[in-house]
Model the fold of this input.
Amino acid sequence: MAARRGAARMLGAVALAGVLGLPAAVWPAGAVAQGANPIGPLPPTPAPAQPASPPATATTTPAPSSPSTSSSSDGGGLGTGFEILIFGGGALLLGAIAWVIVRDARRSAPVPARSAESEAVGTTRQRARARARARTKAARRQRKRNR
Done:
């Protein structure tokens, strides 16, 4: 029983660490450190920096680059591995919550009352042996009566 409690405490500690550590892994550091009103208007974006022009020593003209026909679908979203990590962590968290709820429900559920006969006999195997002995005794009595 003590080992079971130790395992439950360990699982609870891991789940708590996961819940507390999840925001740090998901939120970008800049968004947390800004301290600005999240509902207010967005600050103006700075103009992109102009790259320095190369020196004009070469007299060759660059070949015109063909426009790219394939569009980049990067979009700046999360990578596949990170998405799997988030969904796996969520599933693990939901599983831990369900396990704690079921464990608590089993502890709180009323225990069905046992009869004195079933308490005296014990396990299913012992009850089966007791029934077999009773049948053997009854058969022996029947044979004696029919002599």
